[in-house]
Here is the input.
Amino acid sequence: MKRTLVLFCLMIFTSPVIARNIDLSTVPARDTVQLTIYNAEDLTLVRETRVISFKQGSNPLQFSWANTLIDPTSVELKFLTKPDQLTVLDTTFPHDKPQMLYWNVSSEFSGEARVEITYFTSGITWSADYTAITNPDESSTHVEGFVTVTNNSGEDYEDAQVRLVVGTINLVEKIDQLARRGVEPTSSAQGFDGSSVLGRRNQAMLGAVMEAEGLLSYSVSRELGEAKQVVKEGLSEYFIFTIEGTETVPNNWSKRLRSFDADDVPVKVQYRYRANEYGNQLVKMFLMTNDEESGLGESPLPDGLVRLFKRNHTGSLSYLTQQPVKYIPIGDKIELNLGQDPNVVFELIDLRAFRDNIWGSIDARFKRRFDDPTVRIEDHGRVEGWDEHTVYAQRIRNYTGKPIDLEIRRAFGGDAIFISRLDTQSHDFQTVQYTAQIDTGESRDLVYELVQRQGSNQKQNRVEIMSADPADVPWMN
Amino acid sequence: MKRIGLLSLVVAMALPLVPNPAEARVKLITLPVRERVEVQLDHAHATLVEEERIVPLVAGANQVDFSWANTRIDPGTIVFRVIGYEGEVVGKNPATQPEVNVLSVSYPPGESALVWDVSSSHSGPVRVRISYLLGGLSKSFNYRAVAEHDESTLTLARYIRVQNFANEQYQDTQIHAGLGGQFSKPIGLNETKEILIEKIADVPILKTYTCDLAQYGYLDPAQKKLRVPMHYVLTNDEDHGLGGESLPHGKVRIFQKDSTGTTAFTGEDWGSFTPIDDKMKLYLGTAQDVVVKRTIERRDRTKVGGNLSHFDVIVKYEIENFKDQAVVLDIAEQINNLRNETGLGSNQQAEWVIGEQTTFTGGPDAEESSQHRVLFHAELPARAGDKAEKIVHMLHLQFRNQF
Here is the structure.
């Protein structure tokens, strides 16, 4: 079995001399390991404990991490037993051994002590995804959330406690770059002291995570056969998912675990037209809410891919769509776009265009007929401002077998008036939203007139909503 | 039997994952066969395969290994559903409900495989369904229409064509195309199968002759004679024997019965996606016996003031029907094309009204017309002897408030 992360106790009874060719060492095994994995950055905080025998006096320790992606500047040693009698005197990164360090530990006693080593590694990532299966009449959905941990760090982590952090953290340098570069100084990383680099990096973020350790307990033994629970805990700007018990994630493997399972999540189906969000088409939307009432709301939903299926009357599945969703806070909506529905026909028909309120300027130039001085005409007037009217029919035909809710948003530039008898409201200063319910088998024309003030008639840059009948369309009469 | 794209389901009884991926995973395997396969082709862009297998589980922890080679399964879409225990459940306690849980899924490196950790409360066979999206299995639709000799009705046959380039063969597969119900067919490797979905007799044909300069152009530009295409129009509603569901896009091959009882191929066209109540318009060819000469009869300007004017445009159609039967000719004008043709092109929208000198009766067809296009119907009598009556129609449009 590949073991890349090794802690040696060097059998040297004088002060440690690093550049030695012949060494004798013991290898204390890893006792426990905990992984705290971030999804916003390629960053994992590893916390492992080992039991080491110390002799009174100076004890050299060697820690090496060949072929892994550990940030050497983040490695920290802490004493869990007798911390007042154990001291790290110095830390040395030998120039000829890139993935290795030596701690020179001074002990006031002879005997065993438990130590904790923490460090950052890159190469371990986690992601969320969701499978939603709607019932045949599309009124409720069975939603399962999953987390997948992928280990490409170069190290096998056996029986590790796994914690997943949701949230955006700030890093000034990427961990994989630090892992490759080693401990060479950079212009922005000054004053390296080697013993407690971890604390310098991002106090706020790590502080939050360290604090979580005291809050969470995962030594739970469950009945065989029950899926593991994922404990969710909010912390500062982050959310931590702790997977019950321990997991083994070998290098290059991925493991997917269920993070929640919600049955009968109510679904609202709505048909939407929003050109800037969904393109120039009417799309079918599935709307759910991440709240307790819906059987969800236990935690925010991290960024991830949602795959939506429909259970047919025969029990088999049909594929509906898959789409990435952004982080959904507790209480927020989950909106899934199913694309165009072939059973709903949506057309915008231009019925009529006309102009009125036409204003012109007249300059002082006239033409006179030379062979008849009584004829004198003004010739140089120009149209300067006018109102452009367009009458539209938004035609919707519903062949879905049940009534549908429709919400249409249209944006109009310039100085405009939206005239209709529709159920209309202003979405923003340039966007009108109107809604309707179309019955089964119904074909309905939602008719409206748009007046756009042009030229010198344009005084505003906003759309005004007017409840009135749109202009007639003479050719249809 | 050639086994390309073998989908093997492997049960490794209670073996822990060996953490080194470079080493072979040691497995004791059973091979549960497919009990049933369904292929869902109802999505526009994706094919979902759902297979049912009976997996023997022992009480406690089980590993179920699913692997696929040389097939384009999207592993992220794999859904594992437990339907229930089959037959007698060994050691079942009547007080407790047998339970099967998927605990986790592991993805070994470098393999098209995954391993489900499944717990079972009892030993016994369990029916499971595994669904996934599969590439290489696609569908298309086509039609075959046989018109009666008098072209009053036709028999429309709808076919689905399923192409299997998924590197996996499917025996006795339930196929659902989203249209026309479910059917069971085997589909072999690299096989294309065409299946009749339904055959509808006595679908009424509306035969139309249409001239539209912008859309179909001239037959003889020098003489200003328009091309007059002939279409079969099928209306997708109950009154016309259809209307059960939307008609998908596909090629329509049209045949006509001749006087001897056999059929002759009269043309083919792409039938566009046709929702219920819409019309599928199939182009068969150009009608040479309906002659339409189109000229611009008048273009007059009326000055309103300054640079603001109204324009009167009259389009003249001289029409002859050399057929020995009366037909209805559809005459369409695209408003902006007419404006450009008469030098009235503008970035502004056309403000138009139909002028008094228009000779078409009944006004524009409300269904076929809009702000951008007008369509009128002209009834043409049959040729009398060897002489065709010349019918003249005028379309008078006034373009108002142009500047």
